[in-house]
Amino acid sequence: MSINICLAQTADELDFILKKVNEPVKVVSLDLSVFLYCVENKIDYYDPINLINRDFHFKIISESDRLIKNINFGNLEYDALRKEFASTIRLRFYNALFLLEVVNKINNQEKINKIYTSGWNKYTKEYSKENYFLSYLAKELFKQFNVQELSSEIISTKKNKYFEYYLNLKSISNKKTIILSNLGYNFSRILFHAIKKGYKVILFTGEASKDFSLIKKLFFLFLGVQFIKFKKSGKTIENQIVIPNINFKSENISFSKILNDRKNEELNKLNTLNSKRKALENFFNKNEKISMIFTYAARGIGGLMVEAGKNKSIPSICIHHGTIAKSFNNFDKIYKKINADKSFSGKAKYFAIQSKITKDSLITHKIEGEPIETGNILFQEAERKSPFFIMYAVTLKNFDNLSFLGDEMFYEFIENLKLFESFTKKYKFKFLIKLHPSAAKHIDLLQKNFKNLKFTISDLKKNLQKCLLTISYSSTVIEDSLYCSVPVILFDKWQRFKHCDSQLDPKVPNEAMYYVTNEDDLLTAINSIKVSDKFNFTKYIYLNKYTENINKLFKLID
Predict the structure, then answer these.
(1) What is the pLDDT of residues 37-91, one digit of tens each?
(2) pTM over 0.90
(3) Residue 483 in contact with residue 380, Cβ under 8 Å?
(4) 275 with 400, same domain?
(5) What local confidence, expressed as pLDDT, does residue 410 receive?
(6) H-helix or E-strand containing 513?
(7) Is 52 part of any domain?
(8) Which residue of 7, 74, 244, 349 lies most exposed, with the fewest beta carbons within 10 A?
(9) Which domain, by its residues, includes 33?
(10) Cα dihedral 48, 54, 57, 60 sign
(11) What are the residues whose beta carbons fall under 8 Å from the beta carbon of 245, sequence distance 6 or more?
(12) Distance CA 521, CA 527 (A)
């Protein structure tokens, strides 16, 4: 018996499809929002937990690595630009291969008659929630099926105009000066310390100062902070980025058209970034006395600032905002290099080593700059107060931002919630579910479906003060927890990824970090932590507080 399925990457798109289809259809759940919509409205759906296995994670990681190694980057001169482009292409390959795997598995189980899609196909800008491309992928990947597009909502492909950019700050004083690429990820700690130390701070705000409220901006101006942002000169330039077409097959299936179409979409951003690169070079040509550039990114604007500064002998330090850990196998090595390419493998002169976990990563991951054992700079710090919660920290990705192997999939997240709900009933544990920002909008529906769990998007530091322990798979909250004296259990239920070295025997007490792969060992590790009276956190972190560490960091440039 044949079936009809529908594909949607958001709940809004699914709602549109279901209102248009007048025959029985089963939803393919590809995103947390789609999954929750189906549960809430009692709609029949396919759960990828039954379709995607561990081997697929290994395959997609290795194939994506082969893809990136085969790319000809053309005239992308800067490392930061090449990494930005590689990330874009990898993500679209992830989307395509994941979709192909799920649909083929369904077809092997039940013969597919029709595939319904919205027909929405639009690209506005990178990481926009208004980008829709699933219909396009279905049309390209499933020519053997009857694909029904229900609309033709396509943004016209007008010729892009590229502009020259300049930086609005003409010159700097002779006073010692530093540049901050952003204030995200607790970079405000560095800003306030620099001001206290008598440094002039130039704060990068992107194309507009909308990053800051008026009150916040006035406060910083009062402190003497100067804002720097890109401005269009009004002069247009020709397309300057040339990247040869990608020719790539996986298991005899060509992904070339899909990847080249994505490449062409991305040329606008790449040309804009390249123009901003030139603006940075011009700025540093006029201002060579800058003491240090601080950034948390090795690609994009942060990476470009570092490279442009390096060409003028302006030193820089990259303080990574994510967890960097050593590798344990070839698949793991690829995944962790992908993460490192975001913030830990660029052209900076110095790289901050904020934990011993990161220090151990240097065993398997080579960096170009000089590692500096700073200790914690950006992670949370707090003392526990009356701890009684078990925190579950998860990094979730939407369909347009998928990640494999080292990130939990949304359907795995749901399976863990079911498990923790059962633990609350059996053992009276109190679970606090720390949602990733990408899932924050789903908090009410999640709370409705898991009434015995408590979901939160509030301040991490305050939440950690109330926690007995943290359960995670892979998240920056791991190091946040350790620096807040909260022990961690790495729960690898699918046995595919080990975040870092940890205690393998859950019965051993007083350990700061455990690695477990099944429910029984998870329960044992929880109980071991409950009866422990001390924890050896120094295996994973440095003892000094971030205020001392930032002071030590500034000795590099004093």
Answers:
(1) 999 999 999 999 999 999 999 999 999 999 999 999 999 989 999 999 999 999 9
(2) yes
(3) yes
(4) no
(5) 94
(6) strand 513-516
(7) yes
(8) 244
(9) 3-149
(10) negative
(11) 256, 260, 263
(12) 10
